Amino acid sequence: MRIQDAVLDALEKNRGEYLSGEQLASSLGVSRNAVWKAIQKLEEAGHKIRAVPKRGYTLAPESDVLTVQSVSRFLDTDMPVYLQVQTEVTSTNTLLKAQAEQGAPEGTVLIAESQTAGKGRLGRHFTSPPGTGIYFSLLLRPHCTAEKSLFITTTAAVAVCEAIEQVTGLNPQIKWVNDVYLNEKKVCGILTEASVDFENGGLNWAVLGIGINIAVPEEGFPEEIRSIAGAIFDGPCPVEMRSRISAAVISRFFALYKNLGSNAFIESYRSHSFLTGRAITFSLGEETYRGVVTGISDEAHLLVRLDSGEERAFSAGEVQIHKGFANPKAE
Fold first, then answer.
1. Which of 64, 186, 267, 303 has its CA 20 to 30 A from that of 297?
2. Secondary structure string (H, E, C) spanning 91-133
């Protein structure tokens, strides 16, 4: 571990307390001058550090740089997690897929402060500005068939909702199949990409990408998504909130992932369903239909009672729900 990483690790673990240069040097087995140089490098990287004579160093309360250390201190999982944090990337999914092909272990997690080419479903761009969101991907090597891989996405949606509830006390919902909504606005998108082993029908690996809007960007959301995009907080991003929510999502996901094949997530998915009871319009092939969502099946299919009275179950990717579904629940 680099000296500056070790110093940051000590400061993160002792937030609110001062550590003297002598303490840090002794615990790390380095000189006080090496500690001083590490502090300088951390400040250059954006960390706000207070230095008080005869007391030492402490992270300022407002210091809020997303780092391996800031996330790790909130993790609560017995799953081995190999964290990586970068300031800016093209796409965390793209980079982690390359690592998967090179043999990176399950539990590798890549978090970015921002993305220049964030990926959404159906080839859409996912807006990923710095400082107001968290964008991360998890590498999985699941023992399941390609058909069951949908459960990775649905499990992740549950993990995001439960993590937001745990950290903030708010009540997000899941818009089938992979979006998380809060106050009628989308605050999170989820995208799973996988490599299929065609010999046995299983997966070589899966990369689960999650993007969460913690706060509204200073310049607002782009015009094309302004009507549907939202954030967990209306004001500025609270200090450490990105680290806390990142860690909570990762921890909760891996807790559910242990029982991926058992559908253990499904009751929570149902209780968080945003569309249940709502009238929707959707496309199936070239045809357009209307109906009322009646629930979610055990296989995470969308259950709909069409205007004709027919009851249907639809799988992910089979239908395209039109915008404007966020109407009051049907009676």
1. 186
2. CHHHHHHHHHHCCCCCCEEEEEEEECCCECHHHCECCCCCCCE
| pLDDT < 50 stretches in the chain | 122, 330-331
Is the domain spanning 3-59 CATH 1.10.10.10? The answer is: yes
202-213 sheet: strands from edge to edge: 82-89, 108-115, 133-140, 202-213, 185-197, 179-182, 173-175
Domain map (residue ranges) of the chain: 3-59, 68-271, 279-321
Q: Domain 68-271 sits in which CATH superfamily?
A: Bira Bifunctional Protein; Domain 2 (3.30.930.10)
Query: Binding site for biotin: residue ranges?
Result: 91-93, 115, 186
Q: Which residues are annotated as a binding site?
A: 91-93, 115, 186
Instruction: Please check whether the domain covering 279-321 is classified as CATH 2.30.30.100.
Output: yes
pLDDT at 1: 75
Torsion of CA 30, 32, 37, 41, to 10 degrees: 80
First vs last C-alpha separation in the chain: 60
Whole-number pLDDT of residue 246: 98
Q: 235-245 pLDDT, tens per residue?
A: 889 999 999 99
